[in-house]
Amino acid sequence: MENVSIFSRVTPFHKLKIINAYKLAGKTIAMTGDGVNDALSLISADVGVAMGKIGTEVAKEASDIVLLDDNFGSIVSGVEEGKNIYKNVKRVILYLFSTNLGEALTIIGAILLSFPLPILAAQILWLNLVTDGFLDVALAMEPKGKNLLRKRSIQNKSSLVDKLMVLRMFTMALPMVAGTLYLFGQNYEADLQKAWTISLTTLAVFQWFNAWNCRSQIKSIFASNPFSNRFLVGATGIVIGLQLLAVYNPFFQKILRTVPLDGKDWLAIVGVSFSIVIVEELRKLVRNKIFG
Predict the structure, then answer these.
(1) Which band of pLDDT confidence, cut at 50, 70 and 90, is reported for residue 82?
(2) Residue 151 has what pLDDT?
(3) Domains of the chain (ranges plus CATH)?
(4) Alpha carbon separation from 73 to 47, 67, 77, 172, 235 (Å, rounded)
């Protein structure tokens, strides 16, 4: 099989034997067909591709992909789009899991340190539904990267949550925990409501930065074009505006139990929250030096 490029005059039975032989050799098989006699081979292949215009209904039902325009070039476009969707799903999972892990560990850390709860239930809902809601949708709109088809193919057994993603979750979550508890510990004895406001805002700002961290697992955010994903730029602007409402608008202050913050508070919050970018940039730097 390794030395054969073309098979001619094959019957449906021969097609099936060829597919099974390549499978035994550990190959990933794509099969194209349009007739009833191709149905068994289309089912047996890893990916069955049927013709949409000239193909029979049997062939279409047996296939994984139907080319509506009968153009093989559409397969390339479909593979590229599928890879981009897969990467965007992983970006969204990483963002949601890392930020929620940070929130959970912040509460656990406060309990272990005998602090009051650093964030209230209504504030957690605000972070999860409002802040996360806009940013994760924007991350899902990340455009296709260059040379996407040249990169390693997605294996059948590949997990959406792999070891690298788990490592990144913790490297992102730990600065969130340390920074939030540090600022909360500095303020809760003097003014608990202000400390709650600082905790809420600190976690929100961490999430703003973290959304930009999640755009790439190897490329620095400082080397990326921020306007290549205008949805993320717009979503970041929206959540900043909403967070200002949460802190300064009397209606939201009653619901979220927040109080106004001054300029010094904001400088401390932004400075501490930027640590999540520094930690992730260091991870990317080490990774790129080791693996190139």
Answers:
(1) confident
(2) 67
(3) 12-71 (3.40.50.1000), 76-291 (1.20.1110.10)
(4) 16, 10, 7, 40, 35
Residue 276 backbone dihedrals phi, psi, to 5 degrees: -65, -30
Query: Using H for helix, E for strand and C for coil, what is the string for the chain?
Result: CCCCCCCCCCCHHHHHHHHHHHHHCCCCCEEEECCHHHHHHHHHCCEEEEECCCCCHHHHHHCCEEECCCCCHHHHHHHHHHHHHHHHHHHHHHHHHHHHHHHHHHHHHHHHCCCCCCCCHHHHHHHHHHHHHHHHHHHCCCCCCCCHHHCCCCCCCCCCCCHHHHHHHHHHHHHHHHHHHHHHHHHCCCCHHHHHHHHHHHHHHHHHHHHHHCCCCCCCCCCCCHHHCHHHHHHHHHHHHHHHHHHHCHHHHHHHCCCCCCHHHHHHHHHHHCHHHHHHHHHHHHHHHHHC
Contacts of 210 (CB under 8 A, 6+ apart): 95, 98, 99, 172, 176, 276
What is the C-alpha separation between 270 and 255, in angstroms, rounded? 24
Give the global pTM: 0.84
How far apart, in whole angstroms, are the C-alpha atoms of residue 143 and residue 81?
10
**Residue matched to tokens 């504030």:** 123
The whole-chain average pLDDT of the chain stands at: 91
